[in-house]
Amino acid sequence: MQVITQVSELRETMQALRCNGKSIGFVPTMGALHEGHLQLLRASVKDNDVTVCSIFVNPTQFNNPDDYKLYPRTLEADIALLQTTGCDFIFAPSPEAIYPQHTMLQFSFGALEQVMEGEQRPGHFNGVATIVSKFFNVVQPHKAYFGQKDLQQVAVIRQLILGLGFDIELVCYPTVRETDGLAMSSRNKRLTAEQRETAVSLHEALQLAKSQLKYESQESIKTAVAEYLQGKPEVQLEYFEIADPLTLQPVQSITDVKEVALCMAAYVGPVRLIDNLVVNLSEV
Ligand code: PAF
């Protein structure tokens, strides 16, 4: 496994591999790797001749400076974990290598960025689209792997690939959970032991919502979720939405659709977590 920090070196290495007919899988990450990332890596290693993992805490996608500052950075441990997956290249550039000058790129994703994460974190998806476009340009992978936990991000990348005509297959990999159901996230590392215990209530609230989909109105499901979380110490619900899994727009009537995404963001202490469940309504 080789660690590359320079954009030009990564570009040349990838070009040579492509010329030799190798298929390239790409897993972009911000490091602080956990089992969720490792499963994406293993899927890429299985599907492709060569796998590249980027580790870069991207400043342009953080709308909260504290969140950027406190985001866990564990490069040595990440490298050791990646060694167990069969990953071939780690791309770990400095912010200056990626942003030699202040970026002014502007993307627009229309209604997709006006809800949930887009609404709550202004500029977030612009930063994600900027960095992912830069990476796609340099790596030019055949397949790129993203986790379903960031469902709205997956929808943004799908639109980015279509919009800019990247010849890349997007793979959306199911959310990996701890044994109690908490969605794996690098931000979980910031939770205290007590907060970690209550953090599972996000998943429990989503399960509660799922169990009510067949019988209750959207309004009463939303109330039930809010009430459930109100009883949990240090948990502050930011949003809970019942949305279309592809467009992420609110579903007008549950009875008219086949699938819904139950999406949530909540603070547990100072740590903001998101989670979702995509539910096939014929199975509830
Ligand atoms: O999902 C993430 O970790 C980040 O948003 C990504 C895709 C690596 C871009 O910085």
Percent of residues in β-strands: 15-25%
Main β-sheet, spatial strand arrangement: 1-4-3-2-5-6
Low-confidence stretches: none
- Overall shape: globular
CA radius of gyration: 19 Å
Structural class label = alpha/beta
Name the hetero compounds present: pantoate
Estimate the mean pLDDT confidence. 97
End-to-end gap: 45 Å
Helix content: 25-40%
Largest sheet: 6 strands, parallel
Order of helices and strands: EHEHEHHEHHHEHEHHEEE
Tell me how many strands there are: 9
Give the count of helical stretches: 10
Task: Give a written overview of the molecule.
- This protein has 284 residues and is α/β, with parallel strands linked by helices.
- Helices cover 40% and strands 20% of the residues.
- It is built from ten helices and nine strands.
- It has helices at residues 7-19, 35-47, 65-70, 75-83, 95-98, 116-120, 124-139, 151-164, 193-212, 218-230, and strands at residues 2-4, 24-29, 50-55, 89-91, 143-147, 169-173, 235-243, 259-268, 271-280.
- Helix 8 (151-164) links the parallel strand 5 and strand 6.
- Helix 9 runs antiparallel to helix 10.
- The chain is globular.
- The model has no long low-confidence stretch (mean pLDDT 97).
- It binds pantoate.
